[in-house]
Amino acid sequence: MAYMGPTTVFVTAAAPMSAMPPNQMMYPQPMGFIPVMAPPPMQADAPTSQSSTAGPPPASKAKAKSSAKKTRNKAEPSRPQPDASPPADDEVAGRGVISLLQEFVQCSKTFPAPQHRPILQWTFDTHMADNTNLEFRAQVSFLLDGVPHHIAGSWQQSKKLAQRDTAERCLGLFVGCWGSYLLQAADPEGLASESLDDPLGDLAKFCTQFRPCSGTGPTWCIEVEEGQCKATAELTLLGVRHRFAGSRAAAAQAAKEDTARRVLWYLQCPGYESLYEPDAQGTHAVAKEIPTPPANWVNVAEDDKSVLAAERKTTVMRVQNRLQQSFAKRLKPGQGVWEWSFESDTAESAWPPMQRATVTIAVVQRSFTGPWVRGQRESQLEACKMVEEYLDSLAEDLPADA
Fold it and tell me: Which domain range does residue 10 map to?
């Protein structure tokens, strides 16, 4: 058995909570899921129409099915029953969903959650819904049975709604879709591999017979960096888009085979179920934060333009917030974090005129002057890029009082 290296699962927009069995929540156990009562209001607040994205099956699917059948009608004696009274308002309900997700992630007894960092790590994407309105999409990262998972929800009008939407969809996938599958699915036939020499062929065969795949095999993406190849497999499981990343290898074929083995282990294909073991000392387990997924991993092609527009619209605000956080202890009450000045080329009659921006950060006695570009807004964005580069250079060695 090998220790699991940098294997990561990316999942986009998990299934809504309407996929959950009525009034039930399923908590993971070392060998399966145990159903207990959950608050009815959670189902009432479920989204009615969104493209779903699922989460991963449990770490020991083949063994979990038999254990889940044995515990189907048992209640967990040590777990208190959640309060079934309706939440006072939407804000309370949203916090309840996030708390349920955190409790679900912490329930793994085979790989306890690290105690030195938040169980759920949140980030937010923004895009322009139209010419004036921003929308937000929440991404949550956590370890489930020792494997890093990054899950994204759908676009919402506020960060709070986006966070709640993603939490609801995570629960809908893990406790609803996968929980129901484990309780109802018959043991697969003909899925065992006679040898482990052809993981790509085994994965293709497994996907044609494994019901959550709906007969569809993976699509592959190869990333080459500094002569090393990294393969990412994209699979649709229970109607939800999943991406699996493996380790780097010298050749594309070897990278694909490595990722294929990890996918087969993750899905507990007979013959591969004991191939790996999560590494309790890996970076994803001991670092302050779970390593971030690739930029824009969740975006479909039609999102790219709106995401770029949102990033440009919020650039000045984001850089200003970053400066305030970096130099909070140096700023005096009421002192601005930066000052702007602009130069215009008066020799030109075209509109908008050529301009360049200079930003001064008094607390560190630094000024940054951008290039000549057309328009004041563009010149300000160019200067912001220089400030961001400066802050990046200080990320590891900022003064203690900064």
Answer: 1-300
